[in-house]
Design brief:
Radius of gyration of chain B: 24 Å
Shape of chain A: globular
Radius of gyration of chain A: 22 Å
Helix content of chain A: over 70%
Largest sheet of chain A: none
Distance between the termini of chain B: 73 Å
Distance between the termini of chain A: 23 Å
Number of domains of chain B: 3
Strand content of chain B: 25-35%
Helix content of chain B: 25-40%
Number of strands of chain A: 0
CATH topology of the largest domain in chain B: Rossmann fold
Largest interface: A-B, 30 and 38 residues
Largest sheet of chain B: 6 strands, mixed
Oligomer: heterodimer
Number of helices of chain B: 17
Order of helices and strands of chain A: HHHHHHHHHHHHHH
Chain lengths: 355, 517
């Protein structure tokens, strides 16, 4: 491994460390029991099997949206509609699970495929707008997340609402639910789907013809045009695939043992978290499970902290924000990086002279 | 001893973020009132040294003495305030403003809150007259020729009080006549006591106007010499470390069938300006058609149209008999056309992808390299390693990012990619611009090899030496037309070519552009 790669890893860990220290400082400021709070945050997830299981459950949706964002961002399509695609995927899977009444085995498969299709069509909207009118996909995708939220809420309220249950759909049929992998936990078959998606995402992006086109266009659009790569196809395919993965993630989440009814009446934030995942994974879907694991661990710790002490959940949002800021800031530790590179270059020079 | 120097740079070391040691222990001393050449191949570290002097880069070690006093130069503003001016190779002018506005930009004479335009014009005139520059200061910069733009750049620096003037390859964009004019001005400036650093790799120019020369190679200084006491041969040896072959043993061309037929080609640019004007020519396999001309006379538009990057044109283009009007870029490339683009960083490569990934962007769909969906990654890796070896690309391994390489090595990657499809037509647009002599020679030899193998080559180049030594036929492009076409390249002189380039001479009837009606 080159000094530069080693440095990148070091910088990532250093960013995380600083972010944690900032959070600790905040906890000390706001809490009457800071030490207990920090202990809950850091060691809480390891305290029981159930807590550990919570970490794994929480990482599953993050792998999906993270992989989707990796694919779109690698093509330099800054589409932020994964949030809405995830939400829509959840609704579509729930609605078809309720209305289709398919046999076990087939039901989840059909519902998930439909969820993925819905997600793909949804994130393709900004892509089509961009191709047809030149509108920035970033702005368009940001706005249509609300379209998704209110559309889903409308369908929930008028078509699948259980009048006996408040703002929730009818109970989802057992035949459509995903299997639990370990009894006593809610870790479900979605974990396997997520890991397969991460691997396939990697293969798509780094070993397929289409992925090669995506990355060339994402890295230098003019070079892609000069090479004869179809930019319109890249814009469309990257956002279709990215949205499909996010939609699939929404479907998996709603059909998991965590939910028994469709109850989402506000955006869940997995689409935003995906940007953190993508940053930590350096746009490589294969690394999204690790990034998701880290974020899920932090989230679980935070919720334990919130339950057992006087510190609220939001502290972790700050940690997350600081990590992103530091991880994407090119100039952070740039002097140290320069020193390392200069030292290596000088050593190489001396070796050359000796030879 | 040291007070005879206006400027001394001592033991400068500069390492870039990608680990490239651009300057290693380089020293440079300037005497007052001399024209001092900084000579070296591209990538030798000349530009870096000048960036350090002009405050754009911070050196890792070494010191700078101005009039014997140690100093640090923190920014270009700082450099200007210390009397150092720089004229960049790519002009830093605002095209939509007038000459006077450009000259006073940033140091405007004010009247209350507003710029005193009358005063500005007067000041610009005064400075132009003081230095005998014959310029209309009220003309818009976008409307004046390149040679005049350069004068504006020089005046800009002088207006800010520059005693030391850095000129980065000032003649690269000039015609021979404009170069002569520039040299007259530089001599006047020298007589006035200005000190000039003249960056170049054109040895004859250095011989003509420089007093001393510091020669750089590979980030190191090879010493400073009195220009009158060193021969051009010795200079070039110090520069490249070996003898440069400037003439090639070229076999006479063996012409094959017509590969490219262009008839009445007319192209307008995005602003609707006519850039290619009813151009007709043929190109056969086995020959190199050189296209010389001052930049901006339609060469880029011609090339972009031939390669289908631009799709709106009048007239007809045939590749091996087939009309390419319906072809996409990919379609044209599938007709076995290799294209070395004018600007390697903007369209020739993706800097943050690896050498391997940059080598197959034009041929990854070839069944040898990919199946229906997947790339044959092992084959690609092996092939990339072969190409790196064959084209002598200096790198740690093919997985290194292309952006980390030197200009010459990036160009070799591009050439390797474009030549590895075994092309029938090669369109080489400025194939050796801004790269070191060694890499340039390598690329030129390759072009000749492909010509000898029956490939049809179009070579667009600003390097007259290059078009002279490689072309079998030589056309000069002026205002979208061929102002001249020479079938006997050996009989043309540089002066003649200059006159055609400037439009002073213009042949109405071109003999030899078309093979058959």
């Amino acid at each position: 491994m080159s000094a530069e790669k080693r440095f990148e890893i070091f910088r990532l860990f250093f960013s995380i460390l600083i972010a944690l220290l900032v959070s600790f400082a905040l906890i000390f400021l706001v809490s009457k029991q800071p030490v207990a709070a920090i202990m809950a945050l850091i060691t809480g997830p390891f305290k029981s099997g159930r807590n550990l299981a919570n970490v794994v459950e929480a990482m599953i949706p993050l792998i999906f949206t993270g992989t989707g964002v990796c694919i779109m961002f690698a093509a330099n399509q800054i589409n932020l509609a994964s949030e809405g695609a995830f939400h829509l995927g959840g609704l579509v899977a729930a609605a078809f699970a309720l209305k289709l009444a398919l046999p076990a085995g087939l039901a989840p498969a059909v519902c998930l495929i439909l969820a993925a299709a819905a997600g793909a069509l949804f994130t393709a909207l900004p892509a089509i707008l961009k191709i047809k009118t030149g509108a920035s996909e970033m702005v368009a995708s940001l706005m249509i997340n609300y379209l998704s939220l209110w559309f889903c809420t409308f369908i929930l309220m008028h078509f699948i609402l259980d009048p006996a249950a408040g703002a929730a759909s009818y109970s989802l049929p057992k035949t459509a639910k995903l299997l639990t992998l370990f009894s006593g936990t809610r870790i479900h078959f979605g974990l396997i789907i997520a890991l397969v998606v991460a691997v396939l995402g990697h293969v798509f992006l780094y070993q397929s013809k289409m992925g090669y086109e995506l990355r060339i266009a994402g890295s230098n659009k003019q070079f892609a045009e000069y090479s004869g790569i179809d930019i319109v196809k890249v814009i469309l395919i990257s956002q279709l695939v990215g949205g499909a993965v996010a939609g699939l993630g929404g479907g998996v989440e709603i059909l998991s043992p965590i939910y028994s009814r469709f109850t989402w009446t506000s955006l869940l934030g997995y689409g935003w978290d995906a940007i953190v995942i993508c940053t930590l994974a350096k746009k490589d879907p294969l690394k999204t499970p690790l990034a998701a694991l880290f974020l899920a661990y932090l989230r679980t710790g935070a919720s334990i902290m919130a339950r057992t002490t006087d510190v609220t959940l939001e502290v972790v949002q700050i940690t997350q924000g600081v990590i992103i800021l530091l991880a994407v800031a090119e100039q952070f530790l740039s002097k140290t990086k320069h020193r390392i590179i200069a030292r290596e270059a000088k050593a190489a020079l001396q070796k050359e002279e000796a030879a | 001893m040291s007070d005879q120097y206006v400027l001394q740079m001592q033991n400068i070391m500069k390492i870039y973020g990608n680990g490239v040691v651009a300057n290693e222990d380089v020293s440079l001393s300037l005497k007052k009132g001399e024209i001092h050449s900084l000579l070296g191949e591209n990538g030798a570290g000349k530009s870096t040294l000048m960036k350090v002097l002009f405050g754009i880069e911070t050196p890792d070690s070494g010191k700078i003495l101005l009039n014997g006093q140690e100093t640090t130069i923190k920014s270009p503003m700082d450099a200007i305030s210390k009397g150092i001016g720089m004229v960049h190779q790519h002009f830093m002018l605002v095209p939509s403003l007038t000459v006077a506005e450009n000259i006073i930009l940033g140091v405007e004479p004010k009247k209350g809150l507003f710029i005193d335009m009358k005063q500005a014009v007067a000041e610009a005139r005064r400075i132009a007259e003081q230095y005998n520059f014959d310029i209309d200061v009220t003309a818009k910069v976008e409307e004046i020729p390149v040679g005049v733009k350069q004068k504006v750049e020089i005046l800009k620096a002088l207006y800010r009080g520059a005693d030391i003037l850095i000129l980065d390859e000032p003649t690269a964009v000039l015609t021979p006549q404009e170069t002569d004019e520039l040299f007259v001005q530089l001599e006047k400036l020298r007589a006035d006591g200005h000190t000039i650093i003249f960056i170049s790799h054109k040895l004859d120019e250095i011989k003509r106007i420089c007093n001393r020369a510091t020669i750089m190679r590979n980030g190191r200084s090879m010493g400073t010499y009195e220009v009158s006491e060193i021969s051009t041969d010795d200079m070039s040896k110090l520069m490249v470390g070996r003898e440069v072959v400037l003439t090639f043993d070229k076999k006479p061309p063996v012409l094959k069938e017509v590969m490219l037929r262009v008839r009445d080609l007319t192209v307008h640019n995005a602003q609707g300006v006519l850039k290619v004007d009813r151009l007709s020519f043929d190109l056969k396999g086995g020959e190199i058609l050189g296209i010389a001309g001052v930049e901006g006379n339609g060469q880029s538009e011609l090339i972009n149209t031939l390669t289908a990057i631009n799709k709106s044109y009048g007239g007809e283009i045939f590749i091996k008999g087939a009309d390419i009007r319906q072809d996409s870029v990919k379609g044209v490339r599938e007709r076995k056309l290799g294209h070395i683009p004018e600007d390697r960083m903007t369209s020739g490569c993706a800097g943050n992808l690896s050498i391997r990934e940059n080598m197959f962007s034009n041929q990854y769909t070839d069944p040898a390299y990919s199946g229906k969906f997947l790339l044959k990654t092992k084959v690609l890796a092996r092939r990339a390693a072969e190409l790196v070896k064959e084209y002598l690309v200096k790198c740690k391994n093919p997985e290194q990012n292309v952006g980390m390489l030197s200009g010459g090595n990036i160009q070799k990657v591009i050439v390797a990619r474009e030549f590895s499809i075994s092309p029938d037509i090669i369109i080489a647009n400025q194939p050796t611009r801004g790269i070191d002599v060694g890499a340039a020679e390598f690329i030129r030899r390759r072009l000749l090899e492909y010509r000898d193998a029956g490939c049809a080559v179009i070579l667009v180049s600003a390097d007259l030496n290059e078009v002279f030594s490689l072309s079998d036929r030589l056309a000069v492009m002026y205002k979208g037309k061929f102002s001249g076409l020479f079938t006997d390249v050996g009989s043309v002189t540089e002066e003649q070519l200059g006159q055609y380039m400037l439009g002073l001479r213009h042949d109405e009837e071109l003999g030899g552009a078309i093979y058959e009606r």
